[in-house]
Each structure stands twice: as structure tokens, then as C-alpha cells.
């Protein structure tokens, strides 16, 4: 399986090809982008109750990678 070190994804938050930081409006969205980028890298899904997760901030994220529970 895929093995990711947390630092690898954290470093990718600084990479413009992975994250569009202009779409992050505050520290909570940075955390959301980190979790979404982790899901994308692992081929998984980030499930949240937070309606304000900026999917567009993670360039490779698709609807498959993010589920918002109403």
C-alpha cells in the first residue's frame, strides 16, 4: 500500500503545483487543505461536516476525494 510521511504532504502545501494558497482564507482552511491533500495523495476521501472546505485549493482534488455531510 501507499505509505506517506506527514511531512511529505505538509511540504506539498508550499508547492504551487499541489495547493493554490490564494484560495486559503485562514488557518482552518490550511488544515482542511492538508487533510484533503493527504486524501488525494492516498487515493482516499476526506469526509467532513465543514461546508467551507476549499476543494479548489487542492489542485488534483475531485469530488471523489471530498464528502461534505450536510
Q: Explain this structure to me?
A:
The chain has 70 residues and is an alpha+beta fold. 33% of the residues lie in helices and 9% in strands. The protein has a two-stranded parallel sheet with strand order 1-2. The longest helix is centred in the middle third of the chain and has 16 residues, at 27-42. The termini are far apart.
Number of helices: 2
Q: Please count the beta strands (DSSP E, at least 2 residues each).
A: 2
Portion in strands: 5-15%
Radius of gyration: 11 Å
Walk across the major sheet and give the strand order: 1-2
For the biggest sheet, the summary is: 2 strands, parallel
Helix percentage range: 25-40%
Order of helices and strands: HHEE
Low-confidence segments, given as residue ranges, are none
Cα separation of the termini: 31 Å
The shape is globular
Overall pLDDT, averaged? 84
| Strand-pairing-aware structural class | alpha+beta
Short note summarizing the structure:
The protein is α+β, with helices and mostly antiparallel strands. The protein is built from 2 helices and 2 strands. The radius of gyration is 11 Å and the shape is globular.
What topology does this entry show?
Blueprint: H1 6-12, H2 27-42, E1 46-48, E2 66-68
Parallel strand pairs: 1-2
